[in-house]
Amino acid sequence: MRPAGAMTALAALAVSACAGPRPPIPPAASLSPPAAWRHTPANDAAIDRQWWQAFGDPVLSELVERARAHNTDIAMAATRVAEARGAVRSAREARIPEIDAQAGGSYARTVTLGIPVDALGTVDGVSASWDLDLFGRLANASAAARAELLASRASYDAVLLSISSATAETYIELVGADERLTVLLETLKSRSRSLDLARKLRGGGYSSDLELRQAEGEYRATSAMVPQERLAITRLENALSILVGDAPADVGRAPGGLAGLKLPVIPVALPSSLLRRRPDVVAAEDMLVAADRSLDSVRASMMPDFSLAASGSLLAANVLPQPFGLFNLAGGAIAPLLGAGRHKGEMESAAARRDRAAFAYRNTTLTALREVEDDMAALQRLGEQRQELIAQVDANAGALRISSLRYARGYASFLNQLDAERQLLAARLALAQADTDRLAASVQLYRALGGGWMDSG
Fold it and tell me: Which residues of the chain have pLDDT under 50?
């Protein structure tokens, strides 16, 4: 063996020994999804990707479509996909031979044996170089870039789903705020009538100043809640405008209001299927694959790098009898002889990044499982709460009718009517909020289940 070849072989052995065994993923980062949900059976049916139409509100559907087309966060996510696509192209091109062409000419006047000579010449040539990538450094870098592209696409879909659900949920909150404002205005009218009655009774000497002041106080208390609810409506309209890519402005509503929104029946996927139906989980998995391939690329960079190079050119000049060609073919190997500590440090850093990606995938998966459980429980408990609130509203409305009649006929004090009015108002506001929360929980469950998204790989 020639001395140069022996040195290359020894360097390769030394670097290989320096690389050591491939570090495994920490066992603590692994996760096995449960076989079933805690309280809700799964049917594993597919969700319609336009799930927002299940609420039966054309304005909601229009707002979601506008947000998906014009939201700024979605546009920024699209640029990240384009950036990752460029990185994939760059990594792929690094694996094919690099070919360069050159062309040039020159003109010179010289003196040969006292005779002026004009020399005109041209040189045209082509050169090529190719990294053989015997140990997979470039191949693994290309695979890492491809995995990052897949992750960016899944992340884009996650942003799309997040903005869609945020738009639907904000619209539902807005319609719920409209309902609460309606309850307040209706109560305000009722208390205005009670205040008028209290004034008449006081004027006739059938009640005291205390009852008149109590009636006025309750009227003012309800009136003070109206601006607060209108402020909430304005803020929700502004938030919706930003979500659809517009400046703050008024937002229309469907005529049916909160009662016009349907509560959809949502098919629930199995926990194991959820991992392929959540774009954020798939993005975290792809980032883990990218980090793993990057680790292999760093390990391969510690091995010798073999390359081929070739060039050819055609030289022509007026001082030559005819053009002639030149060519060169060479091969070489580059092996890192020094800096083993630096290379090992790079490998340790790459392994740490891979492990961090593994724990991030575990954390994202656990979060997805928790969100589904939370939203299913919210739908169930809010439905139970709604039934109790409906009964409470009916009971309080009956109590108010009786207390109002007794007060008008002088059989009871005004305090009984005030208590009944307060309880009825609180129950009606709580019922409107429960209806809003239940519809919003449906949106959140759609999002938690992936919104009909499926991993296309």
Answer: 1-17, 319
